[in-house]
């Protein structure tokens, strides 16, 4: 394809994207296909000869689209939002075109510098303490864009592991690092995302999963008891992962209590995962939910979930960048450059060497919406979640199972787990609405998350109508 063809096909693609997004409402939310459907439709081998663009696009329509789950659909209310917006799509398009690989400042100065600046903009906009910003007064901290929250938590745990091993080696300087691994214990609440468990597996450390209180919040006393018990057994507490806005029920751990507990142990790293919820702190009135953040060593939030930035864009800030990078530095000659001392080399901030120009889309979104526009987006979602909660509460067949503080409502039919499983299966099976379940305090609940950028009262009303209709069919099978 040359640039002349790209001009034509690129413009057609923009039209295709607009038609797709504008017309989503008329599609099923979820596809009606069985595993292996696509293998039956596509050839087993790649084409030897180039194909016409239009023929490829016909296959997109006829073969790919029927198997797509439409995450941007107004009736997609599952998981958390998958951020998306036109400025972000354009930012990614430009990043793809520039196609630079920003592993060091020298590899593409603007790529590293924009990331550094935008991470400070965003960190300041969500009210992070100055210590986390590279331009903060006397700060040793800073931020980087990682691919996912799972990466943020893994690299934080790797840094914490390196830190505690350095500390333990003060008494046993000749010991191999691996000698300490069986002693190391990380902690999180049962509400924490499964990526904490995965990080502990990769780091080859123990993970102790603690019971939260009846509001699904991890409390200081529970953590202290567990850490003291482990210490008495000769183990070494080294990492605590807290959550602000848990996946299951959007609950918030009590950082004000957990922070001092972490600090009272000799070498414990406190991470705060706000993959979804952290974005909300762009609204000052929601910042009480992050009280105690000043105790954290690291914090992550994903604008690619709830701030209109398309995947991947997961933001990680650390209080002390050297403690992070010293765990991850390798420095072969071919990656070195003359400005290493004064410039930022993001390859030391994560697992990847090659890094895309991801800050462009975040920069485009922040500039095009402005902080005020992003606040309006978050506030609209929260308003709608509260409106949905009210609808649920008005129908005495149902009950609400979480404190609705952001865009997630956890609800269920009064009755058994089985009844609720059947309700969700029949709603999802209809293709009219898509939600997922979770367990809250041991009970199967249905999660309704406000997801679409332009979600409206009409969407909430429509969703509730679908849910009520399926509930009625289930509870009173003779009706209709
Ligand atoms: N943490 C929380 C609170 C989440 O909700 C999720 C995913 O929804 C994750 C971590 C994992 O996110 P990622 O898919 O970016 O690794």
TrEMBL record:
Its cofactor is pyridoxal 5'-phosphate. Keywords: Decarboxylase, Lyase, Pyridoxal phosphate. The keyword Kinase does not apply. The chain holds residues 1 to 480 of 571 of the full protein. Belongs to the group II decarboxylase family. Signal peptide: none annotated. GO terms for biological process: amino acid metabolic process; carboxylic acid metabolic process. GO terms for cellular component: cytoplasm. The keyword tRNA processing does not apply. GO terms for molecular function: carboxy-lyase activity; pyridoxal phosphate binding. This is Tyrosine decarboxylase. The modification N6-(pyridoxal phosphate)lysine is found at residue 305.
């Amino acid at each position: 394809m040359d640039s002349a063809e790209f001009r034509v096909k690129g413009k057609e693609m923009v039209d295709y994207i607009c038609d797709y997004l504008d017309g989503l409402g008329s599609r099923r939310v979820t596809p009606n296909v069985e595993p292996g459907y696509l293998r039956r439709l596509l050839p087993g081998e790649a084409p030897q000869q180039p194909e016409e663009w239009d023929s490829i696009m016909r296959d997109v329509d006829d073969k790919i689209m029927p198997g797509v789950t439409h995450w941007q659909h107004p009736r997609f209310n599952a998981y958390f939002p998958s951020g998306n917006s036109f400025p972000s799509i354009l930012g990614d398009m430009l990043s793809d075109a520039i196609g630079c690989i920003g592993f060091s400042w020298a590899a593409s100065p603007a790529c590293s510098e924009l990331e550094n600046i935008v991470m400070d903009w965003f960190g300041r906009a969500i009210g992070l303490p100055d210590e986390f910003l590279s331009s903060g007064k006397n700060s040793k901290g800073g931020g980087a864009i990682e691919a996912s929250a799972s990466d943020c938590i893994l690299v934080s745990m790797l840094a914490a592991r390196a830190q505690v091993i350095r500390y333990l080696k003060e008494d046993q300087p000749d010991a191999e690092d691996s000698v300490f691994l069986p002693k190391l214990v990380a902690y999180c609440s049962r509400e924490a995302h499964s990526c904490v468990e995965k990080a502990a597996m990769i780091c080859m450390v123990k993970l102790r999963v603690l019971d939260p209180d009846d509001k699904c919040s991890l409390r200081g006393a529970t953590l202290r008891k567990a850490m003291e018990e482990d210490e008495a057994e000769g183990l070494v507490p080294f990492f605590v992962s807290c959550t602000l806005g848990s996946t299951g029920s959007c609950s918030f751990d009590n950082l004000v209590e957990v922070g001092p507990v972490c600090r009272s142990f000799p070498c414990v790293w406190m991470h705060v995962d706000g993959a979804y919820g952290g974005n909300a702190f762009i609204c000052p009135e929601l910042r009480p939910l992050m009280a105690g953040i000043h105790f954290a060593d690291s914090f992550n939030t994903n604008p690619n979930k709830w701030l209109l930035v398309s995947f991947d864009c997961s933001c990680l800030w650390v209080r002390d960048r050297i403690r992070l990078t010293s765990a991850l530095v390798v420095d072969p000659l071919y990656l070195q450059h003359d400005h290493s001392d004064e410039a930022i080399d993001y390859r030391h901030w994560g697992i990847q060497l090659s890094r895309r120009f991801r800050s462009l889309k975040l920069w485009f979104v922040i500039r095009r919406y402005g902080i005020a526009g992003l606040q309006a987006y978050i506030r609209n979602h929260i308003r709608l979640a509260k409106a949905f909660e009210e609808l649920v509460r008005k129908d005495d067949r149902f009950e609400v199972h979480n404190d609705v503080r952001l865009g997630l409502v956890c609800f269920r039919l009064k009755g058994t787990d089985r009844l609720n499983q059947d309700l969700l299966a029949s709603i999802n099976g209809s293709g009219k609405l898509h939600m997922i379940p979770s367990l809250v305090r041991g009970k199967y609940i249905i999660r309704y998350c406000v997801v679409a950028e332009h979600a409206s009262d009409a969407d909430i009303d429509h969703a509730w109508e679908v849910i009520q209709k399926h509930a009625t069919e289930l509870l009173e099978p003779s009706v209709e």
